[in-house]
Amino acid sequence: MRLPPGVSSADFADAIKQFQDAVGKEWVFTSDEDVDLYRDSYSPFWHEDEEPIPSAAVAPDGVEQVQAVVKIANKYKIPLWTISTGKNLGYGGSAPLLGSSVVLDLKRMDRILEVNDKNHYALVEPGVSYFDLYRYIQDNNLKVWIDPADPGWGSLIGNAVDRGGGRTPMRDHFDAHCGMEVVLPNGEVMRTGMGALPGSKTWQQYRYGFGPYVNGMFSQSNLGIVTKMGFWLFPEPEAYLTGTVSVPKRDDLGPLVAGLAYLMNSSIVLGTTSVASPLNFLRGDAELAALRAKPGGPSTQELEHYLQEKNMGYWSIELPFYGPAKVVAAQWEYAKEKFSGIEGATFKEGTLHRFPVDPKELPQFQNSVAVGIPSLSVFGVGGTRSEGHVWFSPIVPMTGEAVLEAQQVFADAYKEMGMSIGPLFFLGPASNYPRCFLVLFGFPIEHDVEKNKKNRENFKRLIKVAAEHGWGEYRTHTAFMETVMDTYSFNNHALRRFHETVKDALDPNGILSPGKCGIWPKSMRKASA
Amino acid sequence: MKNARVGLLLALSLMITAPAFAAPDQDQIEKGHKVYDKWCFPCHGTGLGKPGTDSLAARGQKPAVLEERTDLTVPAIKTFVRHGVLFMPMFRKTEVSDADLDAIAAYLTRNNKP
Ligand SMILES: Cc1cc2nc3c(=O)[nH]c(=O)nc-3n(C[C@H](O)[C@H](O)[C@H](O)COP(=O)(O)OP(=O)(O)OC[C@H]3O[C@@H](n4cnc5c(N)ncnc54)[C@H](O)[C@@H]3O)c2cc1C
Asked: How many CA atoms lie within 13 A of B101 on its CB side?
């Protein structure tokens, strides 16, 4: 059996016994066969000693059991790594950052405590997945939408505390939450916002409560275990309409994105869209390949001409509109007016869908997630032979200039690293979050030590290149958390030092998710470089 | 989701009190179908956007939909679910319990020739 760092085998055996008393024997996993199921299926460390494999897993069912586990962990100084549904594939899966931690698996806590379709919110436990909540809403005929992340088996809580994103107007998942219940590192339960007022009638309506607003400290953090969380839901809209704007020239990107930013920041477009170019999906076209093979590559004019011949724009954006049918039609009309200032802009209206949607219409949705219906179709994103990937996910400004710069900078970086863009894929720039673009690169994971080593080096290199240009990651795989936190270094790492001060005060034994986002408890902190 | 689980238990207990002329493992197959629908169908089902089915189809597997297969064996199914393959991750016991997995295996082998 693996042992958590610094814990004797006698102590660990005692702790395991106490965990069993707290949650029931069958919910403490210690055999290699069971514990191996907590490995990260998309680990960039396959077949390497460095892979952080847990020592055990404990699956409580209820907040009192979570408290009991935390108290035992404090007694023996055992590191716990919390997961809700543990589907954080691409960012660490269900595996801890620190090898031989004990995984605290909250999947069994899967109660839907309330769904309200008059004031549009839900209160759920960590094990509730998007599929679960969707089914519950359908079964009870409630007139609300959820906003799933692309993989529907993830949890509202796990995804939101990792600050994940979706596609509908509620797509910024942490921003959409209202009220938390948290087990603190000392085992005490705390409720935030209006939940701190006993008998509060507005825990899921008013976010802030009274005094400093602390909820952010429990996102991407190792300061607490979230055991309940409220979420604002979108009232089922009457209609959904998309309209695609295409522009002919490379230089049209500036005004195109400026128009998008205006529409989004004015709340006329509220949903995830991304800047697309046919040059991406025409990669296999022989004519384009010939142009690209020319010494020095094709000129912008040649590319523009090539696309013009095919009756295609250089860039396009598909705008999503949600709301009453009359309103979405008017919003699209207004958007067309806004973009008609770009010479040669063309417009294509999609089908107007009304809700509740006729199941026969479902196949027409390229991605049902955009209309609040969870799915796993996104797993096709890396191709049919993919063994998984880790996400490189920087945030760049929502401007045409920034997109062109990012494209150039990352293309150069790939070239320098001797990598072809071929096996990689590039998504976005997408508007999952307000006011900025998220760019996603999938780094393939393979069961090949040398390739993974090289990929890890390249990944770290990209983090640095991005930071040199003022772009930071919004989230990262456990393997790169330290490297990313290193780049958030303003004033001699003042932010990390602040986190460390708080960590030491709240979690003196360093039991909760050591190393999460580069924040280590005092006992494990390396002398700062 | 607990409510669904309670519903399932209820349904199962009703079946148990029903006359016992059903094939002995019919309950198991039905339970397997439900667990399969929850955990496997979104990748292995029919229709657009089913990446597991797409992957098997691209490999030339016929039929590509797992539920239509008659050649899967119980140990193979268990191995795939507990170890994963390509981008299919392995499943933990808090997601798919051993009993659930027995049921899935019964369901996916229901049409195998003896
Ligand atoms: C193909 C593909 C597409 C993806 N698309 C998206 C997407 O569209 N949007 C998106 O956001 N992500 C996406 N992801 C990433 C990821 O799969 C999802 O974010 C997923 O929802 C995260 O897993 P989870 O919900 O099970 O959370 P978990 O794995 O349970 O947890 C996520 C993180 O939060 C912490 N945590 C979990 N629960 C708690 C708790 N109760 N208290 C304190 N800390 C906790 C964990 O330590 C972990 O670091 C994608 C991944 C893949 C492979």
From this structure: 20
Q: Return the residue whose CA atom lies nearest to atom 1 of ligand 1.
A: A379
Phi, psi of A466 (to 5 degrees): -60, -45
Residue B19 is encoded by which pair of tokens?
């006359």
* CA A133/CA A471 separation, integer angstroms: 35
A473 lines ligand 1 (CB under 6 A): no
Amino acid at A499: H
- Please report which confidence band the pLDDT of residue B21 belongs to, taking 50, 70 and 90 as the band edges: very low
Note if the bond before A320 is cis, omega within 30 degrees: no
Q: Is the dihedral of CA B22, B27, B30, B32 positive or negative?
A: negative
CB contact under 8 A, A110 and B1: yes
Domain boundaries, chain B: 2-18+26-108
Bridge partners (DSSP) of residue A226 are: A182
User: In terms of residues, how long is chain A?
Assistant: 529
- Chain A residues in contact with B59 (beta carbon < 8 A): 384
pTM: 0.95
Q: Which of A170, A114, A107 is nearest to A137 (CA)?
A: A114
Domains and CATH numbers, chain A: 9-105 (3.30.43.10), 112-235 (3.30.465.10), 239-368 (3.40.462.10), 389-480 (3.30.70), 488-524 (1.10.45.10)
Q: What is the mean pLDDT of residues A463-490?
A: 98
Cα B42 to averaged position of ligand 1 atoms, centre (Å): 18
Run of H or E residues at A279: helix A278-281
Q: Does domain B2-18+26-108 have CATH number 1.10.760.10?
A: yes
User: Could you give the ipTM of this predicted complex?
Assistant: 0.95
